[in-house]
Amino acid sequence: MVASGSLRTSWLLAWSLLLALIGAVRPVQASEYRQLPPASPTALSNDWLIHDAARNRLIFYLPGYHQPAHAYYQWVRVGRSQPFPLAFAAQPGLSLFLDNQLVFTARAATTYSLDLAQLLPAKLAPGTHLLAVWQPDGTPALASFSGISPISTVPGRAEAQVGQAQPRLPGPQGQNVYLGFLLVLGLSYGAVRTTYQPGLARIFQIEELFGNGSDQQAFLAKPAFSLLNLLLVLLFSLSFALLLTAIHTDLQNLPLLRRFFDVPETAIVARVLLYTAIITTFVFSKYVYVGLLAYIFGLQPLVNIQYREFLRTTLLAGLFLPLVLLLYLSLNGSFPRTVAWAASAAIGIGLIGTVSRVARTLHHHTSLLNLHLFAYLCATEVLPLLVLLKLIVFTY
C-alpha cells in the first residue's frame, strides 16, 4: 500500500509540473505572436516593421542598422465607412497586402493615390490589420508613403483626393536636364544648318511638300542615306525622346524592352538616351522593312521614293517637337492634364501626317485605287502607325 501510494504521489507531482510548464509556456507563445501593438491605429506613421526570421516575429526597422528588406509592415486600423487615403511612389511590381491578402500591384513606375478602405477584402472585418509593402526586385520607397487628408468634412461624405488606385501624373522632374538637352539640340541644329545649308534648305522647304514638278521627282529619286540625313535623324530622335520622357510614356515598361533594358523612371538622362537609340533604330530599320515588303508585293521601284518621303516628312515634323516640349514644361504645373493631352495629340498628328504624306506621294506614282498597292500601303505604313499610336498615344 505504501509503494502504491508513493507511486500515485509521484504521478501527481509529475502532472503538476507538466501543467505548470504548459501554463508558463503559453503566455510566451502568445506574446511572440504579436510582439508589437498597433503603433498608428488610424494612419500611417514613419515607423515600419520588418520580419525577424530568426525569432519569427516583427521588429522595428532601424535605417542604417538593419539591412534594407524587400517587405515592410505596419499595423493600421481600416474601416469600410472611414476613408484611408494613401499616396506613394512605386516601381513596377510593388504590391500591398492586408493580412497577407493581395490588394494592389503597381503596373507602371509612377506615383499612386488610393483609398485603402475601398481595397479591404470582403472576408476581412473592419479593424486592425497588418499592412505589408513588398517590392520583389528591390526596396520600396518608404519615404514616399504618406496619408492624404479627406476633401470633404461633411459627415458621411468624406472622400479621398483620388480613389481606387488611380495613378497621379507627377510634374516633370529634372527640368534642368530637359532644358540642357534642348540647349544641346538647338546648338546642334545650328551647327548642321551652318555646315549643310544648301542640303538642309532643300529638305525643309515646306512648299515642296505640295508640289509635283520635276524638281520634286528628282529630289525623291536621290539616295536616302547620307551624312546629313544621319545627323538629322539623330537630332529628330533626341527631340522625340525628350518629349516621350517628359510625358512619362514609360516605354521601358514593355515586357520585351524590360527584358534587355531596365531603366528606372528617375534616371532621366539614361531614359532619354535609350529612347533616342530606339527611335533611331526604328527610323533606319523601316528601310529594311519597306524593302522586304516591296519585294514580296513586287513593288521594288517604290522603295526609295517611299522611304525618302517618309524621312523628309518625319524630319520636318521633328522641328516642332522642341516647341511642344517647351510648352509642356512651361504649362504642366498649371494645366497638367490639358498639356499632357495636347502633347500626345501633337505626337499623334505628326505620325498620322507622315503616313498621309507618304500615301499621297505613292498615289501620284501608282493609284491607290489599285487594291494591290492599297494592301502594300496598309502593310508598310498603316500597320506601323497603329502600333505606334497604341504604344505612345493611347496607352498614355
Radius of gyration: 32 Å
Query: Shape, please?
Result: elongated
Helix content: 40-55%
Tell me the strand order in the biggest sheet: 3-8-5-6
State the major sheet: 4 strands, antiparallel
Number of spatially distinct domains: 2
Assign the structural class, choosing from mainly alpha, mainly beta, alpha/beta, alpha+beta, or little secondary structure.
alpha+beta
Strand content: 5-15%
How far apart are the first and last residues' alpha carbons, in Å?
Answer: 92 Å
Tally of individual helices: 11
Uncertain spans? 27-34, 37-42, 148-172
Mean pLDDT equals 76
Order of helices and strands: HEEEEEEEEEEHHHHHHHHHH
Strands, total number: 10
In a few lines, what is going on in this structure?
The chain has 396 residues and is α+β, with helices and mostly antiparallel strands. The chain contains eleven helices and ten strands.
